[in-house]
Amino acid sequence: MSKNKIDQLIEEYELLGIQQSLVRDWTHEDDQRRKSVRELTSWFNQKLVMVILDRHTGGMIPSDYTVEEITTRLQARGSDASKYDDIPDREIMDVIQWLQNNDVPVDDVINDLVSYGTMYTYLKKIMGAVSPDSQPDQRTPEERQADVLEGIRADLAKRPERINSRLRTLRTHDQLPETKPDIHISVECNCPACGHAQPITDYIEQQGCTECEMHTRDDPTTDQTNHKPHSDKDENTAHDKLG
After folding, report:
1. How much is the pLDDT for 138?
2. pTM greater than the 0.90 cutoff
3. Using an 8 Å Cβ cutoff, are 114 and 44 in contact?
4. Which element (helix H / strand E) includes 116?
5. DSSP single-letter state for residue 83
6. 10 Å Cβ neighbour count for 66?
7. How far apart are alpha carbons 205 and 222 in whole angstroms?
8. Contacts of 196 (CB under 8 A, 6+ apart)
9. Between 219 and 16, whose confidence is greater?
10. Interatomic CA distance for residues 8 and 122, integer angstroms
11. What angle do CA 44, 21, 16 make, to 5 degrees?
C-alpha cells in the first residue's frame, strides 16, 4: 500500500515527529493554542521550503523575502486561486529567478507543497484526529444565509480592483488609457428547470428559483413573503460588465 503524500514528504524531507505536532496543534484543548487546518498547512509547507533551502542554498534566502513569503509566492506560481491575485507577478518571478539561480528545482518544490484538502484528509482520515472546533453548525438558518450572502458580496467587492490590477500591465505598455475604468460586477444563475436567470443573491434569499416551483425549496427555512421577483428588464441587467 502506497503512503499518502504527507507521510511521503515527512520521510523524504526527514521531518520526523512532525505528525505528532500536527495532531497536537489541531486538537489542542486550549483554543488560544489550537491551530486551524489552514494554519497547519501553511506551517507544514514552510517547513518543506526551509529544508529545501538548507539543502540547496545552505539556508540562504532572498534578502527581500521571508520563508513565509517565498512559500506563498511559490504557491501563487502553481495556482490560479483568487486569494493570490494580490501578489504582484514581479514578486513571484523575483523569487522563482532567485531559486533557479541557486539550483533549486522550483517545479518539484511547487508539486510538493500540500493543499488545505490534503492536510485536512491527513489529519482526519489518516491520523484519526478530531478537532474541538469540529462541532455541528450552531447558527440559525437566517444567520447561515446571511453569512453566505456577506461572503459573496465581499468577494464581488474585491473583484473590480483585482481586474484593474491585471489591466495595469496593459496600461504600462501603452495598450490601454492611463485612467482606470469603473468596473461593475454582478453574478447571476440560471434555473436548471426553467432557465430563468436571476442574481445569485436573489437565488439564495429565495432558496431557489423565483419563477418556477421545480427548483426551489418546498419549505423555506426563512420568511420569503417579502421577496419580490425581478422583472425581465431586471434580469437583463444581471450580468458581468466592464465600464
Report:
1. 61
2. no
3. yes
4. helix 116-121
5. G
6. 11
7. 8
8. 190, 209, 210, 211, 212, 235
9. 16
10. 12
11. 75
Tell me how far apart the alpha carbons of residues 45 and 22 are, in angstroms, rounded to a whole number.
12
C-alpha cell of residue 120: 485536512
Q: Could you report the per-residue pLDDT of 145-199, keeping only the tens digit for each?
A: 887 888 788 778 777 877 877 788 788 888 989 888 888 888 898 988 888 899 9
| Type of residue numbered 212 | C
Dist CA 178 CA 57 (whole Å) = 42
Q: Delimit the domains of the chain by residue range.
A: 5-126, 141-242
C-alpha 150/C-alpha 177 separation (Å) is 34
Count of alpha carbons within 13 Å of 97, Cβ hemisphere only? Answer: 6
Residue type, position 59, single letter = G
For residue 31, what is its C-alpha cell? 483554543
Sequence-ordered strand ranges (E) for 62-208: 183-184, 188-190, 197-199
Set of cell numbers at residue 111:
508539486
12-37 per-position pLDDT tens digit? 999 989 999 999 999 988 878 889 99
Which amino acid, residue 123? L
Residue written as cell 539561480? 101
- Answer yes or no: are the C-beta atoms of 113 and 75 closer than 8 Å: yes
Query: Residue type for 108, please?
Result: D
